[in-house]
Amino acid sequence: MTLKELMKLKQKDWGMTQAEIASYIGVGYAFFSAILCGTTKLPEETLKTMLKRLDFSGCDERWLIAYFIRQSGKIPLSLLTSAENVEAIVDNAAGNIIELYYLEKSIN
């Protein structure tokens, strides 16, 4: 499951609008849109807040790591500490970043 798919699922599960979820996460609506489309870099603090407030269970760790690397330019160590096979996940992250790019390009 990609991050975008997870966010859409959360929206459906919680019965909340995108604006309500943005408020719950603690980010502005523009940032929430950026989360879904990945076209805008997010401040590191916003990414940390997202991690704390959203349950990312069910989302492939590699997708999360790829997304956060793409957004902040850094590997999120808090995600890696719980991962079993860190090396394989990091190796695969670059491929997922490219895949994210093509997915977003096809949507736009």
Automatic annotation (TrEMBL):
GO molecular function, one term: DNA binding
Keyword Kinase: no
SMART domains, per database record: HTH_XRE (SM00530)
Residue ranges annotated for the HTH cro/C1-type domain, each copy included: 3-57
Segments passing through the bilayer: 21-42
SUPFAM superfamilies tied to this protein: lambda repressor-like DNA-binding domains
InterPro entries with a match to the protein in the record: Cro/C1-type_HTH, Lambda_DNA-bd_dom_sf
Gene3D superfamilies, A to Z: lambda repressor-like DNA-binding domains
Keywords carried by this UniProt record: Membrane, Transmembrane, Transmembrane helix
Transmembrane recorded as keyword: yes
Protein name listed in UniProt: HTH cro/C1-type domain-containing protein
Organism: Neisseria subflava
